[in-house]
Amino acid sequence: QQEKEDLQGKLKFKEHLSQTAGKSEATPAPSKNSNLEMKQLQYKLKNSNNEISKQSTTIKSLKNEVLEKEERVRELQAKISRLERDLSMKRHLIEDLRSRLKANQENEKTSNETLESLERKVKALAEDCANKKSSIDSLKQRLNIATKEKSQYEQMYQKAKDELEKKDLKVNDLEGKMIATEYAMTELEATASQQLHGLAKQTGEALETIQKKLLLTNDKVEEFMTFVKALTRELQQSVQELRTKIKRAKKVGEVRECKKGLSQESVQLAASILNVSTTDLEEILEVEDDEETVKAKVEFEKDKEWLQYIQKLPEEQ
């Protein structure tokens, strides 16, 4: 703008010079110096006009740039207003996030505490699991031992079951015999009742003879009772003797089988190693079976119960 004002001043000055030049044409011809100065001024005016045209074009371009920059400023102001709104919203969001961060930090603190407690619990549970695992291993070992014992007991049970079936057959046979004897006794009782009815019809003399016979029969019954008791004792003793003989025979057979398996030289060698005689070695070989002794005790108790039962029967009937 300052250059424009200077140029306008120069232009006015040049116009003034041109006017003075026009006036001077009416006057007599000037001197050479004035013509030269006039030419210089015209040249300067021409240059200034060119400069003015350039400056006008630059002014126009600058105005356009100013308009564009003003438009850009307005756009930037609108953008700044939007950014300020966004900034305020972001500030609110940051404050909200700070509050959430504070709450999350507190929650994290409590979570860390709970996590530490849970880690302690997990460690305790791991130790407990290790202890339980060791106990489970021991229980598995015990279970294997128990299964082996179970198989052994099942074999013993099968043997006992077979023996029980045999004894059941014997008991059934005895029950059949008892039924036959009871039938015979009922027949005897029927005949005796018939005879008693016949005797009741007889005279008093016959009654006295019957009383005498009754006394005799009572004596015979007592004798029968004593006979039964003695017989049962003898039966028990004979059964026990037979069992001991069978047991000894089994032992002798086992010893003989053992002797058959061993040569005389090996027997003498074993006796010399143990520093005993051959008879003592045979007694050592006669090892008593615990199962056989238990079985013998059970049979002895059964025989004892049978003896008491048989001895009570004549007294009750």
Characterization of this structure:
- Residues 1-37 are annotated as: Disordered.
- One of its GO terms (biological process) is centriole-centriole cohesion.
- It comes from Pedionomus torquatus (Plains-wanderer).
- One of its GO terms (cellular component) is centrosome.
- This protein is an all-alpha fold and 317 residues long.
- The protein has 6 helices and no strands.
- The longest helix is centred in the middle third of the chain and has 169 residues, at 32-200.
- The chain starts with a helix and ends with a helix.
Please outline the helices and strands:
Blueprint: H1 2-26, H2 32-200, H3 204-261, H4 264-274, H5 278-285, H6 290-316
Helix pairs in contact: 1-2, 3-6
What's the quick description here?
The chain has 317 residues and is mainly alpha-helical. 94% of the residues lie in helices and 0% in strands. The chain contains six helices and no strands.
Provide the helix percentage: over 70%
Number of strands: 0
What does the largest sheet look like?
none
Radius of gyration: 73 Å
Low-confidence stretches: none
Region (Disordered): 1-37
Organism: Pedionomus torquatus (Plains-wanderer)
Biased composition (Basic and acidic residues): 1-17
Protein name: CNTLN protein
